[in-house]
Amino acid sequence: MSAVNISATLEHSIEVKSPLSVPQTRRSIQALWLVGLSAAVSWGVLSAVTLLWSNAEVGFSDWAYTTEFGCAAAVVALVALLQAMTPLIGIPVTKRVKALGPWLVALGAGLTVWEIVTAKLASLPTPFFAPPQSLIEVFTTDAAKLLDSTGNSLVLLSAGIVCGAWTGFLVGVWIGWSRQASYWIHPVLRVLGPIPTTALLPVSFFFFPSSWSTAVFLIALGTGFPVAVLTWSGIASVNKNFYDVARTMGASQWFLILRVAVPAALPQVFVGLFMGLGAAFSTLVAAEMLGVKSGLGWYLTWAQGWAAYPNMYGALIVMALLFSGLISLLFLVRDRVLRWQKGVVKW
């Protein structure tokens, strides 16, 4: 074998047997969950800013729970880093975690900016604007009052929504099925329905014996109007051929209402419930601010009166979680009830 052949063979052997460092490095980088790595960096920066940058003096000793907040951010950064590296050992990142990744990056960046402009630079006036760690103090020291207010708001909200939803549904079915009911009731709904429920607070306090019953009535009114209108719309828009087919098979009047009209109108009913929940939330807060002695709206007024703005922000966060949770629950019920229309309902 010539020297040229021996040299070519050795070069080919080296290329085959040498570790593929460059391709392996590229595959390792591609295997990393880069969004998770960005989340780890975002929360790591938040932890470093919180722990290593001294808080600005704002007229009192210091913001409580600063160290705890920085350590918590470091834990989140570590968890995100470990999650980002799991593909290297053959554990794929789940779809749910991937979906949460961009939000995790944005949340870490947003908290970092919030921390800098409040606790570190004091660019925003205190006590109107407090840093993120002040919320930890609210949820640890005032948890009992917040839980009590949340429970009372849930009871009040549930009573109003149940009464309003059932009344609105029955009225909507009635005016959608009966021409006489539509003639008399529909104009009343068109005149009184658009009036904001909060505008009826002074009149309602006169007719009802307590502020709690007044709040229930107003929440029911705000919920019932969109449910009634959209239920009526759903009943009125049912294809007449459905009724003709059912009548040829001997269906009674009640069968036509309960087994033909109402199921066909259910998508519209859930749209009305969705709109009614939004009206119920705003009415709840307004009613609790003016009348009741406990609830999230009352808590907001109390916190504002004492200039406890971190408590006010904590109550707003609880409200957001509570109301979004109720909306998500409504979606779950809708998907369960309308599973026979899967792929048709898109909202």
TrEMBL record:
Keyword annotations from UniProtKB, A to Z: Cell membrane, Membrane, Transmembrane, Transmembrane helix, Transport
GO cellular component: plasma membrane
Main location: membrane
Keyword match Transmembrane helix: yes
Gene3D superfamilies: MetI-like
Chain ranges passing through the membrane: 31-53, 73-91, 103-122, 154-177, 189-208, 214-235, 256-281, 312-333
Family: Belongs to the binding-protein-dependent transport system permease family.
Stated name of the protein: Bicarbonate transport system permease protein CmpB
Organism: Comamonas testosteroni
Gene assigned in the entry: cmpB_2
